[in-house]
Inverse folding.
């Protein structure tokens, strides 16, 4: 056998593994899309809360001018934060579905399927598609309220990618929690405890400059802050990120990859 043969064999093996990963992941994506198609009412009910934030909270504080937002109006400033909130709230309770599937025995079937742990741990990442469908509703509502949105293709594509990445990140975070707590009641308690601190310890509805030092320090470690930053820079005319769009994307992607690795290692433990 020539020296190049082992290299060719390893390359073929890696290609096979990559093809299998894509095939298994695509099957899981199809399952998620089927869920959305069969129950579209869930998307609209989840859009009610962010709509109220824009219609009530945003309109009132825009009139009072109590929160300084620089060259853009408060409603413009708030719209990306409300979208990020919608992504967070819809994704953070994804883990309860994992626990439900475990109780029904679906997780056991997935674990003995040909799919490796990687695609299975990426399953919540595909739930980011739900966040994208909600984003369409919120963006349309923002347009009706006169929010100055960017309309170029690259900005819209960037918003879509940021929403999917944010939904994937928080869904995977929820997935990891579900693998640890293992009961629906305990998960619901933890989920409710986490959502509001994540939301208020970010720059979703007020600038970081208004926060006390200790809260600003917490916000700097909050992934939601970087999601809001990215959305504000991509969505709003005159909007900008406090740290730079590249840093926002890098932080979100790094946290997501870390959570996927943790989730892949914890997945099998959920059936024990």
């Amino acid at each position: 056998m020539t020296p190049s043969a082992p290299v060719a064999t390893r390359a073929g093996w890696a290609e096979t593994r990559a093809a299998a990963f894509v095939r298994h992941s695509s099957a899981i994506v199809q399952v998620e899309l089927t869920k959305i198609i069969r129950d579209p009412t869930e998307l609209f009910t989840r859009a009610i809360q962010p709509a109220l934030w824009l219609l009530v909270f945003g309109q009132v504080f825009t009139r009072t001018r109590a929160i300084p937002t620089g060259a853009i109006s408060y409603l413009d400033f708030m719209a990306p934060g409300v979208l990020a909130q919608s992504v967070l709230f819809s994704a953070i309770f994804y883990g309860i579905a994992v626990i439900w599937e475990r109780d029904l025995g679906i997780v056991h079937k997935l674990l003995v399927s040909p799919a490796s742990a990687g695609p299975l741990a990426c399953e919540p990442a595909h739930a980011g598609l739900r966040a994208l469908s909600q984003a369409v509703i919120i963006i349309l509502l923002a347009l009706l309220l006169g929010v100055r949105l960017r309309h170029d293709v690259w900005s819209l594509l960037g918003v879509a990618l940021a929403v999917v990445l944010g939904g994937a990140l928080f869904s995977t975070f929820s997935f990891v929690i579900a693998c640890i707590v293992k009961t629906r009641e305990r998960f619901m308690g933890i989920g409710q405890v986490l959502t509001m601190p994540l939301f208020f310890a970010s720059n979703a509805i007020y600038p970081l400059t208004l926060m006390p030092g200790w809260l600003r320090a917490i916000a700097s470690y909050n992934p939601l802050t970087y999601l809001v930053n990215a959305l504000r820079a991509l969505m709003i005319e005159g909007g900008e990120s406090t740290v730079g769009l590249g840093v926002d994307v890098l932080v979100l992607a790094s946290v997501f990859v870390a959570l996927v690795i943790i989730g892949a290692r914890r997945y099998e433990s959920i059936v024990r």
